[in-house]
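To the wet lab folks,

You asked to see what we're planning to order before we commit. Fair enough. Below is the target structure as tokens, and below that is the sequence we designed to fit it. If anything looks off to you, flag it before the synthesis order goes out.
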């Protein structure tokens, strides 16, 4: 499969920041070639084969939602996105290597971390089950606005002010997705909930009038609507339903469980808010570039 343009651009931008100038890049290239020739010569002269230069850092398995851009999604067998990049930096600075190979859909990711078969859930809301079965990393790594999406023209643009405005409506949700225990409980008690496998299905149902509302992350919802070509038929209410805090969660049997304070310190850095904003903007553009409008 051809390498996506956004991943190529990501590498270029990363190199530009590290090297600074074209002259420095050229010099480094020359230095690398010289070192390569020297290494080859030494290997030829050595009486025994040279030792492998493989990465010897201990590996931790991480997973995240497979369809929640720009925070994270599955791409070419890997979980990518803002959460994936930031979690990797926060953990690898402690001497580990983060393995983000796709382990399965969101529900499976949660089970794998809760049962200790994976080490890290890279990005999730806090709820009683996660707090009981895993170790939370504090402070939060980000915040996600939960919007109430509805069919354009079906309601006045300013119709939503509070949760009670949702009573009696038909709600489309994704299997395994939690938006916090209180909001989950309200929707379950006071709306008719239909759960489906993915966000595309929810938005299509909404556009066809099969459900009345679809509460979901504002960023992810807008990206999905752009990709589906439904952004003029389905829109978010002006007011968010809630602002959800996103955290990393660590398996209790993981070596990282004893280092949650060190991981959390990454999110206390003075420049962290700017880093997060940059990552979200980058991956928002990356996802749209990699997912042209589909019907």
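Sequence we intend to order:
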């Amino acid at each position: 499969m051809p390498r996506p343009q956004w991943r190529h651009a990501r590498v270029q931008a990363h190199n530009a920041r590290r090297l600074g100038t074209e002259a420095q890049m050229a010099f480094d290239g020359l230095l690398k070639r010289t070192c390569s020739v020297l290494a080859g010569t030494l290997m030829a002269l050595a009486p025994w084969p040279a030792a492998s230069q493989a990465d010897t850092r201990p590996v931790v398995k991480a997973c995240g939602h497979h369809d929640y851009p720009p925070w994270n999604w599955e791409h070419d067998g890997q979980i990518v996105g803002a959460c994936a990049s930031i979690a990797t930096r926060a953990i690898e600075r402690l001497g580990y290597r983060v393995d983000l190979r796709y382990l399965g859909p969101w529900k499976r990711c949660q089970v794998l971390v809760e049962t200790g078969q994976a080490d890290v859930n890279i990005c999730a809301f806090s709820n009683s089950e996660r707090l009981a079965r895993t170790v939370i990393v504090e402070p939060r790594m980000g915040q996600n606005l939960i919007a109430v999406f509805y069919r354009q023209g079906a309601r006045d643009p300013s119709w939503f002010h509070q949760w009670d405005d949702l009573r009696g409506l038909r709600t489309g949700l994704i299997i395994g997705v939690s938006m916090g225990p209180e909001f989950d409980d309200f929707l379950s008690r006071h709306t008719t909930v239909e759960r489906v496998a993915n966000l595309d299905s929810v938005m299509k149902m909404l556009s066809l009038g099969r459900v009345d509302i679809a509460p979901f992350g504002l960023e992810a919802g807008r990206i999905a609507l752009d990709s589906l070509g439904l952004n003029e038929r389905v829109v978010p209410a002006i007011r968010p339903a809630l602002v959800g805090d996103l955290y990393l969660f660590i398996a209790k049997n993981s070596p990282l469980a004893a280092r949650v304070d060190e991981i959390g310190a990454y999110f206390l850095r003075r420049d962290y808010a700017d880093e997060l904003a940059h990552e979200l903007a980058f991956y928002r553009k990356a996802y749209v570039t990699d997912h042209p409008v589909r019907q």
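Structural context that might help your review: Confidence is low (pLDDT under 50) at residues 14-27, 33-52. The chain has two domains: 59-143+245-290, 144-243.

Thanks,
Computational group
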